[in-house]
């Protein structure tokens, strides 16, 4: 399963929405929809494009993952995604993107330090292009490192071309994508307190948590609660401490685990 969230701004992971697709007020994993339906549903996301055909480029080490994507993704997506270029030379990545103008780049971290260097250079030189890193394994530290370098997601190389379609479309539409298996790590030890969380919070705490989970920015929180932006920042920081999480993405993931997003707002 792949999770996605839609950032509330373009500054990385500062204010992400949960790692789930928001649909009719609920957050869900990316569904197994027909590519055309996925395109329609994800169309119009923040910073998104009109998803007629998503152009994809590959920067990889030349192994089976890249070969399979290049050969099979077009058919697996029903024509919704087409591979427009591929290179195994990280130094040629920026030129490839400038020349072929893909919406999404899959960047293989098996290139080692050169892969991270290519990620940073792509982010600087072609900031409109969505770069999704692919790796043999992923953990929270890798996600943090790649997002700081400018990535818009992390996927596993074990993902089949069929299962890549939805996250590629999501990335093209302005969402960020992560392996679903990372959710427990993002939540951390706070999951152990899940049954008591909602009961231990006041209605005001739950309202604030829901806004954080929805990716609402601090200024909007302040306006909604009729407080100053400075006070809103303090309230969010206090909420994160109460939840036992380090940042907004963990708070958002925990909200889904705790059932906050299924509960009727107080």
The helix content, as a percent range, equals 40-55%
Strands, count = 9
- From the N-terminal CA to the C-terminal CA, the straight-line distance is 31 Å
How would you classify the quaternary structure?
A: single chain
Average pLDDT, all residues: 77
Report the structural category.
alpha/beta
CATH topology label of the largest domain: Rossmann fold
Q: What CATH first level of the largest domain would be assigned?
A: Alpha Beta
* Main sheet summary: 5 strands, parallel
Instruction: Kindly report the spatial arrangement of strands forming the biggest sheet.
Output: 5-4-6-7-8
Percentage beta strand: 15-25%
Q: What would you note in describing this structure?
A:
There is one protein chain. The protein has 266 residues and is an alpha/beta fold. The chain has two domains: 2-184, Rossmann fold (3-Layer(aba) Sandwich), CATH 3.40.50.2300; 186-258, Arc Repressor Mutant, subunit A (Orthogonal Bundle). It contains twelve helices and nine strands. The chain has helices at 35-42, 64-76, 93-100, 113-125, 140-149, 161-172, 183-187, 194-200, 203-213, 218-225, 229-243, 248-258; strands at 2-5, 21-23, 26-28, 54-59, 81-87, 104-108, 130-135, 154-156, 176-179. The chain has a five-stranded parallel β-sheet with strand order 5-4-6-7-8, sandwiched between helices. Strands 1-9 form a two-stranded antiparallel ribbon. Strands 2-3 form a two-stranded antiparallel sheet. α2 (64-76) links the parallel β4 (54-59) and β5 (81-87). α1 runs parallel beside α6 and α10 (218-225) crosses α11 (229-243). 42% of the residues are buried.
């Amino acid at each position: 399963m792949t999770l996605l969230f839609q950032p509330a701004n373009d500054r990385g992971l500062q204010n992400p929405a949960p790692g789930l697709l928001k649909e009719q007020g609920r957050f869900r994993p990316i569904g197994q929809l027909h590519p055309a339906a996925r395109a329609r549903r994800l169309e119009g996301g923040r910073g998104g494009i009109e998803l007629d055909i998503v152009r994809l480029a590959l920067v990889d080490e030349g192994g089976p993952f890249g070969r399979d994507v290049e050969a099979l993704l077009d058919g697996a997506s029903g024509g919704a995604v087409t591979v427009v270029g591929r290179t195994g030379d990280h130094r040629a990545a920026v030129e490839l993107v400038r020349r072929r103008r893909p919406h999404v780049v899959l960047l293989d971290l098996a290139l080692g330090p050169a892969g991270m260097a290519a990620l940073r250079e792509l982010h600087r030189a072609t900031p409109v292009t969505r770069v999704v890193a692919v790796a043999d394994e992923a953990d929270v530290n890798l996600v943090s490192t790649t997002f700081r370098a400018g990535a818009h997601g992390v996927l596993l190389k074990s993902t089949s071309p069929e299962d890549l379609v939805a996250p590629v479309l999501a990335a093209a539409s302005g969402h960020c994508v992560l392996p679903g298996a990372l959710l427990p790590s993002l939540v951390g030890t706070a999951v152990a307190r899940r049954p008591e969380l909602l009961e231990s919070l006041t209605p005001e705490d739950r309202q604030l948590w829901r806004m954080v989970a929805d990716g609402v920015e601090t200024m909007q929180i302040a306006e909604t609660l009729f407080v100053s932006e400075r006070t809103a920042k303090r309230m969010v920081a206090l909420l994160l401490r109460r939840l036992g999480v380090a940042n907004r993405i963990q708070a958002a993931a925990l909200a889904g685990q705790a059932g906050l997003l299924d509960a009727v707002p107080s």
